[in-house]
Design brief:
The complex is a heterodimer of chains A (about 250) and B (about 700). With about 250 residues, chain A is α/β, with parallel strands linked by helices. Chain A contains 9 helices and 12 strands. Chain A is about 45% helix and about 20% strand. The radius of gyration of chain A is 18 Å and the shape is globular. Chain B has 4 domains: about 170 residues, PAS domain (Beta-Lactamase); about 180 residues, Immunoglobulin-like; about 60 residues; about 160 residues, Histidine kinase-like ATPase, C-terminal domain (Heat Shock Protein 90), CATH 3.30.565. Classes of the chains: A alpha/beta (about 250), B alpha+beta (about 700).
Chain lengths: ~250, ~700
């Protein structure tokens, strides 16, 4: 609900921008590893984004004080702060509830992913991810932001019983209520619900989510998705595990 | 040799105590004996000194045997008679049973087949004679005939001695008596007297009593003569006639021709006994003998052996143990003689002490002897012997010894038992520590760092604490090793990401076809590196998954069935066979994790089997457990594998596939088994099942209570 409420504010801020020409989207990369930072920057620049890079939390924060970027990619551990990324995320969320945030980290532990997503990050990606996939993620996030400003087009909406998936806005609803899913989670739900009854193995789910994850992570993602839906409907049992193979949507 | 045995042997060393005690007792006994002997010796020497030069007190004839000045009276010692001092008066009846057993005191005379054995003794005022004659044809005097008619003579005994009426000194006229009888019974002695005109008359002598008794092979004659009749010399002769009127064969110590007695009667005067009695003390034998050892007088004769009380078995054992090695001679048991040692002392002219003991009875006698010299102290004229049975202090010693032995044996027993108990306890503690140490690197590779005995204050406790410290460090080290792969993977990931992203950027920058090959290769290399990193971090991820896993009750059978279906598709080069139990197989845990465990087992089975091999997956209920078994044909496990197979970073088999292995697969399986309170087992298939390996997971079934 807070998300809905923040949308006009965000549009307003954009609308009061000084130039009318379509601006390049600004992506901020907060990453302490210089080589990696520059590589990401090069990839984003090539894809047509404006990129600003920061090596630590303090420089990033002081820069963000004057202007918020359109999307932030944060590493969890920043120089001398092992959890500096989380702190930065918290501070940015305090500034703006809508700012798309992506964690990109070498840490692949379940715990980190959970805490990152709980802090309001839109996605938690490991550095195994290829640049192409990363770009796809970023595009998708921007698309969601854009889609929020447009009326929904019905052909982009998938109805499966109580589940409604708005592919344009990357938004999931259960019996009309918005279920907050990370991007990865959304794509997993989408891949399953598009063909109910069909088993989707882990590789297919990864491909759908455009993410490289290991089996365990898929398992924990699915577990988390179930939990989120069960928060709205304790009887939620639409995602079945097919042991040894994958999952399927039971419509 | 076990500790127990060693300590037992050590405890046996306390057996030295009784041995030392025995030695002590023996020395104590020696000291006692020495003192006893010295006091006896003092008495003997006192008496001997008091008797010095007093031949008249020692010998009736005032001469000592072998000595003397009157040459004409010198007799041969062989003919001399030394009567035994008798303890009682024998009845003159021809029976020998009231005489002492004194084989050495007998004198033997022989002529042809006939023999005469003569035993003399004295008691009080009488001299006693016992003659045993071996004679095939005893001949009595003709009855009713004149005693002096030679044709009537039978076997006759002649006695001849100095007339002792006036004096016992040598030189007195001699008298002859004959004993004759016409049949067994009392004999009468006669003296032949010359009367006027050469008439000879046989005068009876009633003071001499005698008796004749026929015995087997001969006859026995017992005679009693008052000592008052007898002078210095005395002789006996037996005229043995084969037939009446035949010439006699003479046996004895008289001259057959003139019947003159030349042999001395070595005998002490009665005063000697009286004299000795004044030195007497109870239990101490005082004896005076000739220098040949013949007993002259005796006070307090030693008791005969039958008087001693029987000994207990234990006492006899101690005695045997203690007296071993002591050379004890059999005492001179002949009642008429002094001890042999005393006689030797007399001959050598010096005092001596001796300990004598018979082998057959338990009589132990301690004796001291001192020689009696003549007035000039040149010649030994006799021996004084003072003797005492050693029973008194032997008893003392034995009693002390028995107590000592009992005490020390008890001490030994206590020491042995104590050390045995101690050894048992020590052995138990050592065994416990050893077992704990052996199993410290426990099943499935976990380290148990808590050892027993670590609280003990002794060296064993030190040892246990050292072990504990060592195990702690080992534990820390293995923990480090266990997480090393994960940490390493994490550290490598960032530079790898740099390489990858750089390569991607490079591709997008547009590279030439020639260079693209290398970029592709580099990408492939980095992909493989990524795979390796993932494998290295597997254990860490599983541990995290386990930490966040929820336990639910579920039926394992459909989960396994579904998983095996997936394997059929995933591993087209292997065949799968699935065995399921009838009915549900409910367990508690995480189905995802169990499938992951099964994945590892299947991976393992695939890696170690050939193409087209049949992999068997079997789920069964055994007792209260669910058994999930995966069998694959292939090479056997190494002998030492056992449960180590499930340790982290342990790998020994040469796998056939080319997959990446860090020995983490089965470790992951074990972690998951632990989460389900189950165990992993690996074993080789028996021969009839075909060569291969069986992995088994055992987890408890969920009870329906």
């Amino acid at each position: 609900m807070a998300k809905d409420g923040s949308v006009p504010q965000r549009m307003r801020s954009r609308g009061t921008g000084p130039t009318l020409t379509p601006m390049k989207k600004l992506i901020a990369i907060v990453e302490d590893e210089a080589a990696l930072r520059d590589n990401y920057a090069a990839a984003f620049t090539r894809a047509g984004y404006e990129v600003r890079t920061f090596a630590n939390r303090r420089t990033a924060l002081s820069a963000f004080a004057s202007r918020l970027p359109d999307l932030v990619v944060i590493d969890v551990s920043l120089e001398d702060e092992p959890e500096g990324g989380f702190d930065l995320c918290r501070e940015l969320r305090a500034k703006s509830a809508e700012l798309p945030l992506i964690f990109l980290t070498a840490r692949d532990s379940e715990l980190d992913a959970v805490s990152g997503l709980r802090l309001g990050a839109d996605d938690f990606l490991t550095k195994d991810l290829s640049l192409a996939h990363l770009l796809a993620r970023v595009n998708a996030l921007f698309r969601r932001v854009d889609a929020l400003r447009r009326p929904t087009s019905s052909e982009q909406i998938l109805h499966r019983g109580p589940l409604t998936l708005d592919v344009e806005r990357l938004e999931a609803k259960w019996e009309g209520e918005i279920v907050l899913l990370s991007l990865t989670e959304f794509w997993i739900v989408h891949a399953l619900a598009r063909h109910p009854g069909h088993v989707r193995n882990r590789q297919q789910l990864m491909d759908a989510a455009r993410v490289v994850l290991d089996d365990d992570t898929i398992t924990s993602h699915v577990k988390r998705i179930r939990r989120k839906f069960q928060a709205f409907d304790p009887a939620f049992d639409s995602i079945h595990t097919v042991y040894g193979m994958g999952y399927r949507w039971a419509g | 040799m076990s500790l127990r045995l060693k300590l037992f042997l050590l405890a046996l060393l306390t057996l030295v105590l009784p041995v030392a005690g025995c030695q002590y007792a023996r020395e104590m006994e020696a000291v006692l004996r020495e003192g006893e002997q010295q006091s006896l010796l003092a008495v003997a020497e006192t008496i001997a000194t008091s008797l010095q030069g007093r031949e008249r007190l020692l010998y009736r004839d005032r001469r000592w045997p072998g000595g003397g000045s009157a040459g004409e009276l010198r007799s041969s010692a062989a003919l001399d008679l030394t009567p035994l001092p008798l303890r009682g008066e024998p009845l003159i009846d021809g029976f020998a049973d009231d005489w002492p057993q004194a084989p050495q005191a007998w004198k033997h005379y022989a002529a042809g087949t006939d023999t005469l054995a003569l035993l003399t003794g004295w008691q009080g005022k009488y001299l006693y004679l016992l003659l045993e004659v071996r004679d095939a044809a005893p001949l009595y005097d003709a009855p009713g005939a004149d005693l002096l008619d030679p044709s009537s003579f039978g076997d006759r005994v002649w006695l001849a001695f100095d007339d002792g009426e006036d004096s016992v000194l040598a030189g007195a006229p001699q008298r002859q008596y004959f004993l004759a009888t016409t049949g067994p019974g009392a004999l009468l002695a006669h003296r032949i007297e010359m009367r006027e005109y050469g008439r000879r008359v046989a005068v009876p002598e009633p003071r001499i009593e005698a008796a004749w008794r026929s015995i087997e092979g001969g006859y026995r004659i017992e005679v009693r003569v008052p000592l008052s009749m007898i002078g210095a010399r005395f002789g006996v002769l037996l005229d043995d006639r084969a037939s009446r009127g035949a010439a006699p064969v003479s046996l004895g110590n008289l001259q057959p021709g003139d019947l003159a007695a030349s042999a001395r009667l070595i005998l002490a005067p009665p005063e000697l006994g009286t004299y000795l009695r004044q030195f007497g003390q109870p239990g101490v034998q005082l004896a005076v003998g000739s220098q040949q050892g013949a007993l002259l007088a005796e006070v307090n004769p030693l008791p005969v052996s039958a008087a001693f009380a029987p000994e207990s078995l234990l006492a006899r054992f101690y005695r045997r143990f203690l007296d071993r090695g002591e050379a004890l001679r059999a005492p001179d048991t002949d009642p008429g003689r002094l001890a042999a040692a005393s006689v030797r002392a007399a001959r050598s002219g010096s005092s001596t002490t001796s300990l004598e003991r018979s082998t057959d009875d338990r009589r132990l006698v301690v004796a001291a002897a001192a020689p009696v010299f003549d007035a000039a102290r040149r010649e030994v004229i006799g021996v004084v012997q003072v003797a005492q049975t050693a029973e008194r202090w032997l008893l003392l010693r034995d009693r002390a010894l028995a107590r000592l032995l009992n005490l020390t044996l008890a001490a030994t027993a206590v020491a042995v038992l104590g050390s045995f108990a101690f050894a048992a306890r020590l052995g138990f503690r050592l065994a416990r520590l050893r077992n704990a140490t052996e199993s410290a690197l426990g099943e499935e590779g976990r380290l148990v760092t808590r050892l027993p005995e670590a609280r003990a204050r002794d060296e064993l406790g030190d040892l246990a604490r050292s072990f504990t410290a060592l195990l702690d460090r080992l534990e820390a080290y293995t923990a480090y090793l266990r997480t090393l792969a994960g940490k390493l993977a994490h550290e490598i990931r960032t530079p790898l990401t740099i390489v990858r992203s750089s390569l991607e950027n490079l591709e997008n920058e547009g590279v030439g076809d020639a260079a693209r090959i290398y970029v592709t290769r580099a990408r492939e290399g980095s992909e493989r590196l990524g795979g390796i990193l993932k494998a290295m971090g597997a254990a860490t991820r599983v541990e995290e998954a386990i930490a966040s896993a929820e336990r639910v009750g579920f039926d394992l059978a459909p989960v396994v069935a579904s998983a095996v279906d997936a394997y059929v598709a995933a591993f087209p080069t292997r065949r799968f066979e699935l065995g399921l139990p009838d009915g549900p197989c409910r367990v508690e845990g995480s189905p995802e994790l169990l499938v992951q465990l099964l994945d590892k087992l299947i991976d393992n089975a695939v890696d170690f089997s050939a193409d087209a091999a049949l992999i068997t997956v079997r789920l069964s209920r055994v007792g209260g457990e669910a058994w999930l078994e995966v069998e694959n044909p292939g090479s056997h496990l190494p002998a030492d594998a056992g449960t180590r197979l499930f340790e982290s970073l342990w790998q020994s088999r040469q796998e056939q596939g080319g997959g990446i292995h860090f020995g983490l697969g089965l470790y992951v399986a074990r972690l998951i088994a632990d989460f389900h309170h189950g165990t992993m087992e690996a074993s080789n298939l028996s021969q009839d099942q075909g060569q291969g390996v069986r992995m088994r997971l055992r987890i408890p079934l969920l009870s329906y209570g």
